[in-house]
Amino acid sequence: MLSLNSTIEIDNTTVGPLSLKLAGPASFKFNLGTGVTVLNIYSGSYSYEAWGCGGAYDSGTIGSNEAHEFYCN
């Protein structure tokens, strides 16, 4: 059985909430406030989709034990 043995650090520097969806070894959905949040996940590579900044959308990939900053343009 897999365990939540890794993390991803998210730095939400937007001025409001951020919705983050991860798909990879498992699927996760998080609603994050501003600031730094450390998410417990399964080890591996994930594709992400993020919504924030009043409806702005971003997508990409992130691996376990990495960090990512989300910001508004």
Describe the structure.
The protein has no helices and 7 strands. The chain has 73 residues and is mostly beta strands. The protein has a 4-stranded antiparallel beta sheet with strand order 3-2-5-6, with no helix packed on it. A 3-stranded mixed beta sheet has the order 4-1-7, with no helix packed on it. It is globular. It starts with 5 loop residues before the first strand and ends with a strand. The mean pLDDT is 93.
* Radius of gyration over all CA atoms, rounded: 12 Å
% residues in beta strands: over 45%
C-alpha geometry:
globular
Coarse structural class: mainly beta
For the record, give the distance between the C-alpha atoms at the N and C termini, rounded to a whole number. Answer: 41 Å
Low-confidence stretches: none
Number of strands: 7
Strands in their spatial order, largest beta sheet: 3-2-5-6
Give the integer mean of the pLDDT values: 93
Measured as a percent range, the helix fraction is under 10%
Number of discrete helical segments: 0
SSE string, helices as H and strands as E: EEEEEEE
Q: For the report, how would you describe the main beta sheet?
A: 4 strands, antiparallel
